[in-house]
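Human:
Class, as today's exercise, you are to examine the entry below, and be ready to discuss the fold:
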Amino acid sequence: MIGLALVVTTLLLSAPDQRPGCEGLATLPLDGGTVTGSEAIGPGEWKAPDGKLLTDLPATCRVTLRLQPGAGSSIQAEVWLPRERWNGRLLGTGNGGYGGVIFHDDLADGVASGFATVNDDMGTAPAKGLDGSPLVGQPVKWLDFGWRATHATAVAARQVVEAFYGKPPHHAYFVGCSSGGRQALMEAQRFPEDYDGIVAGCAAREFTRNISQVVWMHRALRASAEASPSPEGLQALRKAVLASCGPTDSGPAGEPWLVDPARCTFDPDAIRCGATSGGTDCLTAAQVDAVRKIYAGPRNPRTGAQIYPGLPRGAEPVRYWAFLAGQPQPPWDGIFRWVFGPTWDAATFDFDRDEATLEAVLGPLLDASSPDLSRFARRGGKLLLWHGWSDPANPAGASVDYYRQLAAAQPGGLVSLRRFARLFLVPGVDHCAGGPGADGFWAARPASAPDPEHDMLMALVRWVEQGVAPSRIVASKFLDDEPRKGVAFQRPLCPYPEVARYRGTGDRTQASSFSCRAPR
């Protein structure tokens, strides 16, 4: 028996490797699609098709795909495979806006951390970014944009990974923000077998209602010639908000943001311009009315029902409000032109009748509304939600509302939910990144080698594979927003409903000076 075992072992070791190699993947047959090319890139620099130069790229096999899960579909995707030091995992990455492009930065970040990484354009080209007009009259593209492209890409990516490495990934993860966050939740709700762990950031979860909220803000800021506050007026508003709510907030005194803005009820009428006060550091009556509407969020004028959360106090971005006020029609309005025709006008949108029509036509395709994640939870899936409190495009209250819905759907409420899903709210951070708060905490922008204490993706990996749920994640604010320049300060991100409360003493730049505790 020993001799036979030695013979078998010798034959196995000497058998030729049947894997196709990078160039050989060009002829790999795919279910529901084709491989359009494969090439070895890196190590070092690589110029993306859009001309952007990616640096510090590891040795990688780049595989391009065209997927057609249905008649008329044309989904472009890329799978990047580390040629050395693969960690055995697959990483799906999300898109943004109306899709239409490949996010090569995310692919590069993924392989740099050892993941076989995939990204797709959601099947919407030539739509791009804020422009969804090419989707008008294209029901197949709406279907792919809504949920089908992400699932088809996950299936195809597994085939490519297994062909290249000779074995499937032992775990698969997905990271996305904005529209990518909606992709993430669609996967958890509709295809829980695709990914073992999911990070959904600033998720445009109910896409139809999110864009209606943009219309609401746009209309408020353009209600009259003087409805939009000046930059100086917005600065005065934010200063007044912090002065009013800062003393009862959990953060240290003088912080330029609120740790728990949901508890702030500041009324902008407090800085209304009076008969003897004027200038630019106050708000006119029209501007007070506009700000109140933006804080309140869109409501059905007939029933009074909340359609979408309003902007929290302390999140009054000067550039975004000026951008909205300067647009004849609100951005992201492609969905309205699809439903109501090319002459659709935001000024006549009815938040009762038209909102119901919009949701009835496109909601089933685009909205990741279901609070039922039972299949995802049963198979051991783990979900991390996060949202910047200063997000102007998609108010953080949308993620809070969804997390509460998830808790209500659990027999054991929040306690049961926290066994597989946690929400992290990030003070002072805008939409997906930016703002004065600490926004360096996930795989898209690692400051150094990622670890579970400082990187949300790696915290998710540890939770899935070792059963250690994240009780906090340390976020970094980099000097000039450049990780290579070093860290300006760090703060812990806490699982909702906990907040990072300042201990009262200690260096404010250090996360150790804060603890995760119940809000005041």
